[in-house]
Amino acid sequence: MADEQKPGGSEAPLPAGGEAAGQPARPSPPKPAAAPPKPPATMAATPWESDLARELKERFGGEIGETSTYLGQNFIVARPEAAIPILEYLKLEADFDYLVDITAVDWPKRPERFDLVYIVYSFPRNERVRIKIHIPDGYQPETAVGVHLTANWLEREVFDMFGIEFAGHPDMRRILMPEDWQGHPLRKDYSILQQDQRWVQENLGIESGQ
Amino acid sequence: MPDSTFLDSTELVLNMGPQHPSTHGVLRVILKLDGEKILGTDCVIGYLHRGVEKIAENRTWAQFNPYVDRMDYVASVSNGLGYCLAVEKLLNVEVPPRAQAVRVILTELNRIASHLVWLGTHALDIGAITPVFYCFREREEALNIFEKYCGARLTTHAFRIGGLEYETYEGFEQDVKAFCDMFPPKVDQYEDLLTGNRIWVGRLTNVGVLTADECKEYGVTGPLLRAAGVKWDLRKAQPYSGYDKYDFEIPIRHNGDTYDRYIVRMQEMRQSVRIVRQAVESLPEGPILGKVAKVIKPAVGEAYVSIEAPKGELGYYVVSDGSTQPYRVRVRPPSFVNLQALDRMVRGGLVADIVAVIGTLDIVLGEVDR
Amino acid sequence: MSAGKLFRKIFLVDLFQGLSVTFRYQKPKYIVTEQYPAERPKVAERYRGAPRLNTNPENGETLCIACNLCALACPENLIVVGSERNEQTRRKELTTFTYDLSRCMFCGLCEDACPVDALELTQDFELASYSREGLIWDRQMLEEGPRPTQYKC
Question: Is the pTM of this model over 0.90?
């Protein structure tokens, strides 16, 4: 079964348990008149069975939406309020002491627009787990700085690029863009050619950067 | 008679601005000083932000390949390897063994080249002016091999999704073997110059100490973690691209100070030569490109793949929505995360130590800012 | 401190060890510095330099079949291939070919995409100019190559 899979490595020919079977329940497409609209393709993830998944489900119960694995990489989808307790639990009880990354993905068509992803790694187990939470625009998730100090700049970057503010962060300001830039570049409604014209004109003295 | 507070020093805020010879790029560090002692630092980055992640959403999978070289521009082959491995994982493509071996050779040569730049510039910042010339002379040999193989020295674009584009050129094996023979005596020369040198030792010991627990808290990886005593290298822990076939050691030290990181990187260079020699002697025959369609369209899904870049753990989190363009490519740069630890490493030290610590962190601003 | 260590400390043995490396290079076996521009570097055959549209050496016709694959492969979309259909041979013929060198990053994807080896990146790396004009190359420039001013040194 899809036990503690070691992610990474391109020689793994096929993920165990992911032989293109076991697609989770697709949203059943309503069939109006002529041609039924094709349901949007979803990730062919399969359930993740392992001791860790079971412990997490026991401890957190309904807070965890699904524990799945795709291509040998395990991830859990949780409720937004449960993200920090899960990180704490993983760090203290399950030896996941290294926060690899915090990032976000923007799905503008969903009501829960952003997918906030935490990736943690455990040195003793040599295993990586992803924790995903779906949050709407304007929601302020709790900061992970109390659990892992790495989260400081990583959350600043998520704020800078997506506009997701983290409640309780010691230093919530932009990190890559200039301090007074308006707009959050990695959102899907921010075009690649778009710029903060006011900032460009004030600070660079030119009409436009294009 | 002036009062007793006359000789008290006040806090000075000094700007180590974006243009500075020792910051290895456009890094701005705002220092709070009390005389020469550092009370706190604040890093301002973003001067080299080019929006690589946004660009990824507007190019096809194969077209984005040249852009990743530009992030860690000192060791561009590693960036390309990480990206190609991530997309190959999404596509579930198997890379043929010959391509894997050539990838390992080029990646390890690129690790040597990156460590040579680190050594040259770090020594230059500390004050030793000679090593930089010697390091760049050896780097020329490695870059010549890159040039003969893929056509460019710095932004190599050496790998393609699924394997390699170019077959190795005539004389590739001889060149690589000649490099392996030429290089270890040169490392001995650098060690003669620096390792026992009292000025070097005095400047680097007990500077920028980061213990193993602090490293894990701050998410610091790479030679910094290994100098603190944690024997962890992604090439051994989660091997990729055939690294498990080669026999090499992971150098570790225990103090976690700058001198230990220097020793770790020197020994890593020697271990890299060992890997390259093994790879080139056992180079298998066969195809160089796996079964990849002309138009790359991975299934809907996501993957996180990370490699042991010369600077630390370089990770790529790729999200695909089934189309020909990536939906999201997130690059987890090792230098960005390592740079957070700068504040902890320098607190309580002197101004001269900031230069040593920035050098030992081995940051490349192209990667920090993307 | 032991006698050996004391000796090394007072007589600066470690510093002299380093200096011996440096002084050995006063008579180097070979000199690495290339005196550019008098000596040009020998560039590799696969070097990705200035682009060139190859022509058939026998009859001087262009090898390009106007398939547009290079334009599709370019990450920066800076190639524009103009073609017209020749009614007699029923094939497309190349009319105009524009290459914007100012935005090119010399990645080589266009060279890899060309099925007939018409577009090739040559070994010419001396492409610097004082202004952006003249960096959008048309077909003639691409086929013949830039003629840089030669200075006598």
Answer: no
